[in-house]
Amino acid sequence: MAAMATDFLVDTHSHLDAGEFDADRDAVYDRACAAGVTLQVVPAVTAANFAEVAATCKRYPGCLPAWGLHPMYIHVHHDKHLAELRRQIEQWRPVAVGEIGLDLFVPDLDYATQEFFYVEQLKIAKEYDLPVLLHCRRANDQILKHLRRFKLKGGIAHAFNGSRHQAEEFIKLGFKLGFGGAFTYPRANNLRRLALDLPLEAIVLETDSPDIAPAWIGKGRNEPAELARIAASLAELRGIDVEAVARQTTQNARDLFGPVF
């Protein structure tokens, strides 16, 4: 399947600041624009990473920041970084608080510490009336438990790979579900079924560049330009026009993130 360019695709989760792009970041950005990926949400993962995300979003039009402390980096997070997160939000209001959440896949990530930073950042999102970008690998039920407590503005369950029931619970809370390269693999039966059956109004597109490469890349580096072909793959799976996928998923992102889109 050839990539199909469109004028209005939003990559709701792109780590364009990552070191994997240091050698050719300008070219990566140009390819994304040529493919119609006009907006990218670039989430931070640590307090030390705020500067790289800020520099990326200042350099590249259409790149918008999210500030957060990622659960896979709890070994570098400290309580003081929560205060730094608040300062960062006040200095440059982001489109979301993220990437935050829980990870029960990676061994030796202390759950209590993950939960502490997750809950504290939910409080910050509530305080500043911001949506959240959720890392929820093998932790959907635990993530949902805390979301029900705070009743946030909504957000995205990034790289969603849960059950239909869990998907519906996120949707009830005003969340969108992030779909990217993972569902493009023929053997990804659960993801492909969800991508087919869930309401298109509940889906946003993402790449998680440079990670979660689609089937046609395999173990190679992912990049935002691939979102055009991901959109085409979703359209083919659902039996609809790619422009309908682009239009609706972009509107979903606008509904979530607000006037900045």
From TrEMBL:
SUPFAM superfamilies: Metallo-dependent hydrolases
Positions with a binding annotation for a divalent metal cation 1: 13, 15, 99, 208
Keyword Metal-binding: yes
Binding-site list for a divalent metal cation 2: 135, 158
Classification via Pfam families: TatD_DNase
Keyword field: Hydrolase, Metal-binding
Record-level Gene Ontology MF annotations: hydrolase activity, acting on ester bonds; metal ion binding
Matches recorded under InterPro entries: DNase_TatD-rel_CS, Metal_Hydrolase, TatD-like
Similarity remark: Belongs to the metallo-dependent hydrolases superfamily. TatD-type hydrolase family.
Entry protein name: TatD DNase family protein
Native organism taxonomy: Bacteria, Pseudomonadati, Pseudomonadota, Betaproteobacteria, Nitrosomonadales
